[in-house]
Amino acid sequence: MKILIAVLVAVLWAAASSLAEDLLKPTTTPPPVDEVSPGDGLEAEAAFDATGVIRAIDVQQGRVTIAHGPVPALKWPAMVMPFKASRQQLAGLAVGDAVDFRFTDGEMDPRIVVIRRR
């Protein structure tokens, strides 16, 4: 009988501990990046769409040079400029390809977010 009571107490203790852990877990998750408030350190960089033609690709340096059309949101005229890009983003692209792309304008260091051949 004492063994049965000891086992029952152990089972109840384990169940209560597990329940307490579940109740103490945070119930909120961080907001999506596009719904964050300024100053919380999670701001998403604004992204801009453009079209252009690839003039140079440097996979080793992670750069692609694109002759792109105007970007009205930034008040940029058409120009030729380099963008940072990952090896995966550059895979399958070649000099002369017409592309649609989205980029962030990061302090004189724009970065490709998405790029695809037209």
TrEMBL record:
Q: Which domain of life is it from?
A: Bacteria
Supply the alphabetized keyword list. Signal
Task: Give one Pfam hit by family name.
Answer: CusF_Ec
Q: Indicate the secretion signal residues.
A: 1-20
Q: What is this protein called?
A: Copper-binding protein
